[in-house]
User: Which sequence fits this backbone?
């Protein structure tokens, strides 16, 4: 079996009394494309937010490349509210901020595009390079970091060229057409030099033609940058076409996982998507 | 081998610097022209001219407005603590520069105070900034977790608390309580505030155009995305807050020098609002906008509208409405008109750059050539 990149261990996220993610255990292996699907409100984006440190999960842990990066157990008032059976009493409390997670090598995009709207395409990518540059605010102010700055600029330009965005480099990001904004967001995530790329509905709002192109694009960048991809997606043709394994969530619970063929045949998945017939 | 390496490094540093100067030729030229014009003006005009009042105060306010713009316009943190940090700066400057022989007279109620030494003006200016920066660091740790309006209220509150503390009698041996601090060195030439403010603003511009400036703008545009791109929010917000306060402190020290006396009660919230007004009129997110609008603001409030305050007769006809206080009415109307018609401020988020000027002139030149042909 290939190297385990991401492992979620009995992850639960409860907002007050509402359980958004319920006791989810899942694995992502190196060089895979894994999809996380489910009806609206199934808790897919919440899973992403727990992994990337935006939310602090109520219970459970996340490991990345064999190292625990997030873990928590019910504390404070959640002790009373927590409804799950498993309580990770032995779990340490590790809750890093999202920037720490990104630094470890997990990059993400957002469901509703979040570009830096007043900045140019070039600057958007350049910002992502800031984290790994060796500099401090004094050396940056007095331009003593000019070599580092030059390296950042060259790498960003190279990345833009590879992604076919070079001709737009001086455009303000919010002026780009929708499809290119999506592409820029992915490029920006790539600029953080990730090992794991997490895409939150990359094909949202795209027509079949664009979706097709996106599928090729994802496979292409995965091979080129040696990535593992975890994505949330509603376009089933995209999911079935490129993902190697699929996890299906419904009301926060994992209802099925396996290869696309297995998932397609699974009765619980069909029920979750189409509803159970009353007179069955 | 090693020496060769060093030599190469120095050479490339030198090349980078000379390239930078070559790229901004017109900008540097303009700065030189500006400073020599000031120098000549000072030789030619009487020093009591209102022009110099406006230039001096305008330069100081420009520095403080730019420092506020770094925070409000470039990092997206709506803070209203500027007057508080100016107060710390001006007090630090005053306390450490009053000549030892004058201390007995200044601290007459506190046995000459407890500080019995002075430091040179230049060092005192830096100390003023550092003191404001240190305060900002400790205020920022808890306060920067707040967002937008809440942050504004918290920083405003802190500025008021600082003002109250500096007037506290128990601190009299250091701050002279609610009494004036005076007799510290000040400046007479307009070149002094222009130089200090000019260098400070240049440093802020260099910071904003660096990698850190981009990170600040990213935080302003979208905090969540900035964090997802690996920018440590707490660290960068605190950095921006401390640097902004540092330069507000330096600005406060300059203001003390300009006024020749310092009293904590002058640093009211109204002062912060004046600076905020300058920033908004100039354009939130435009350095040159802040600078231009601060000179316009000071000129309007101190000079150009003065005549509205005095009763005027044309022949035997008394011009109506002109009376003490009318200036403020007109001034408020002017500001409202500006905000209505330029709701992004004078400059918006654009900058007034040497390249822009060059482009402007080359366009005129090419048009003339066309008309000639």
Assistant:
């Amino acid at each position: 079996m290939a190297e385990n990149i991401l492992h979620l261990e009995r992850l639960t996220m409860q907002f007050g009394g509402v359980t958004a993610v319920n006791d989810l255990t899942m694995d992502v292996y190196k060089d895979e494309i894994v999809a996380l699907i489910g009806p609206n409100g199934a808790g897919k984006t919440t899973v992403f937010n727990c992994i990337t440190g935006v939310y602090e999960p109520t219970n459970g842990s996340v490991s990345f490349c064999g190292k625990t990066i997030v873990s928590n157990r019910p504390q404070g008032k959640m002790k009373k509210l927590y409804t799950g059976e498993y309580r990770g009493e032995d779990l340490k409390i590790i809750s890093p901020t999202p920037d720490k997670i990104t630094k470890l090598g997990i990059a993400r995009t957002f469901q509703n595009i979040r570009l830096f709207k007043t900045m140019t395409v070039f600057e958007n990518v350049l910002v992502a390079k800031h984290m790994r540059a060796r500099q401090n605010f004094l050396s940056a102010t007095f331009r003593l970091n000019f070599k580092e700055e030059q390296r950042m600029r060259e790498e960003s330009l190279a990345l833009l060229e590879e992604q076919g965005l070079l001709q737009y480099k001086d455009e303000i990001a919010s002026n780009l057409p929708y499809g290119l904004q999506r592409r820029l967001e992915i490029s920006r995530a790539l600029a953080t030099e990730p090992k794991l790329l997490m895409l939150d509905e990359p094909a949202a709002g795209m027509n079949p033609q664009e979706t097709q192109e996106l599928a090729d694009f994802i496979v292409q960048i995965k091979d080129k940058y040696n990535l593992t991809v975890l994505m949330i997606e509603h376009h089933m043709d995209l999911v079935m076409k490129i993902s190697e394994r699929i996890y299906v969530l419904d009301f926060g619970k994992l209802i099925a996982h396996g290869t696309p063929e297995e998932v397609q045949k699974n009765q619980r998945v069909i029920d979750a998507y189409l509803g159970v017939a009353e007179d069955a | 081998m090693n020496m060769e390496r060093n030599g190469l490094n120095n050479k490339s540093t030198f090349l980078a610097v000379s390239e930078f100067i070559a790229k901004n030729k017109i900008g540097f030229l303009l700065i030189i022209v500006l400073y020599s014009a000031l120098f000549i003006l000072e030789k030619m005009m009487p020093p009591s001219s209102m022009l110099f009042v406006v230039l001096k105060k305008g330069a100081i306010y420009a520095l403080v407005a730019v420092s506020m713009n770094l925070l409000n316009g470039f990092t997206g943190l709506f803070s209203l603590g500027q007057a508080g940090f100016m107060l710390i700066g001006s007090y630090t400057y005053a306390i450490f520069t009053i000549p030892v022989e004058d201390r007995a007279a200044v601290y007459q109620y506190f046995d000459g105070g407890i500080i019995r030494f002075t430091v040179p003006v230049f060092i005192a200016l830096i100390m003023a900034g550092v003191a404001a920066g240190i305060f900002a660091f400790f205020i920022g740790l808890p306060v920067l977790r707040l967002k937008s309006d809440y942050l504004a209220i918290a920083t405003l509150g802190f500025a008021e608390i600082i003002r109250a503390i500096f007037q506290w009698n128990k601190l009299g041996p250091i701050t002279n309580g609610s009494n004036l601090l005076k007799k510290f060195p000040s400046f007479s030439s307009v070149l002094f505030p222009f130089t200090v403010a000019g260098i400070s603003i240049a440093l802020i511009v260099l910071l904003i155009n660096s990698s850190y400036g981009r990170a600040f703008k990213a935080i302003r545009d979208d905090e969540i995305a900035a964090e997802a791109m690996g920018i440590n929010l707490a660290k960068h917000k605190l950095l921006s807050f401390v640097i902004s306060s540092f330069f507000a402190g330096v600005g406060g020290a300059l203001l003390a020098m300009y006024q020749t006396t310092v009293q904590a009660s002058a640093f009211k919230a109204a002062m912060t609002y004046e600076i905020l007004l300058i920033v908004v009129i100039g354009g939130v997110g435009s350095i040159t906008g802040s600078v231009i609008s601060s000179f316009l603001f000071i000129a309007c409030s101190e000079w150009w509208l003065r005549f509205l305050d005095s009763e005027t007769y044309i022949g035997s006809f008394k011009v109506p409405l002109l009376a003490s206080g009318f200036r403020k009415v007109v001034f408020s109307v002017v500001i409202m008109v500006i905000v209505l018609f330029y709701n992004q401020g004078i400059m918006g988020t654009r900058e007034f750059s040497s390249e822009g000027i060059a482009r402007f002139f080359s366009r005129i030149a090419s048009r003339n050539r066309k008309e000639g042909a």
In short: Chain B touches chain A at residues 13, 16, 20, 203, 206-207, 210-212, 214-215, 217-218, 220-222, 224-234, 239, 243, 285, 349 (CB under 8 Å).
